[in-house]
Amino acid sequence: MNKVEANLMAWLRNTHAMEEQAVTMLTSLASRTGDYPDVKARIESHLAETKRQAEALEECIKRRGGDTSILKDLAAKTVAFGQGVSGMFVEDEIVKGAMASYTFEHMEAAAYRVLIAAAEAVGDTQTQTVCERILQEELSMASDLERQLSILTRKYLSRSRVK
Ligand code: MG
Ligand code: FE
Question: How far, in Å, from the CA of 159 to the mean position of ligand 2?
């Protein structure tokens, strides 16, 4: 494995860990958005998408000859962070959760842009295609959350006014 290939492998692993973390965060957020059915439905659909993304990355790692047995360790380490972020959702949780998710989708989009460029650099068109598809899913989720942020905040505020 040359230097560039090693970089691509490291970034694939990191991004896989990021997706595992996303599963933890989205699961937690979905369970707390019962009062906001539109948001909940969108989170659940992205949760399913996110699980497929993690599998697709694992396939890319395997295809490139990477060891997938250590993926679990890396994911376990980042779960702690995911749970920390999930813990943020307890008070004005829904608004903070939406903000955190919006930010997280952009971090994911950045990771996929890096992967696309690295896959292109080593001529791995399959990995490039997979990452281009996932990038669109992250951008779509980011733009849906962008739209939902103000709607959600207004709903949250009008609800707390009633109480
Ligand atoms: Mg993702
Ligand atoms: Fe995502």
Answer: 28
CATH class as words, domain 3-162? mainly alpha
68, two tokens: 């997938």
* Residue 64: other Cβ atoms inside 10 A: 17
Ligand nearest to the CA of 106: 2
Q: What is the model's pTM? A: 0.88
What residue spans define the domains of the chain? 3-162
In the reported structure, the alpha carbon of residue 137 is separated from the centroid of ligand 1 by a whole-number distance in angstroms of: 8
CA of 51, nearest ligand number: 1
Encode pLDDT of 51-109 as tens digits. Answer: 999 999 999 999 999 988 877 666 666 655 555 555 554 557 789 899 999 999 999 99
Q: How far is the CA of 32 from the centre of ligand 2 (A)?
A: 18
Q: Rounded to the nearest whole angstrom, what is the distance from the C-alpha of residue 18 to the centroid of ligand 1?
A: 8
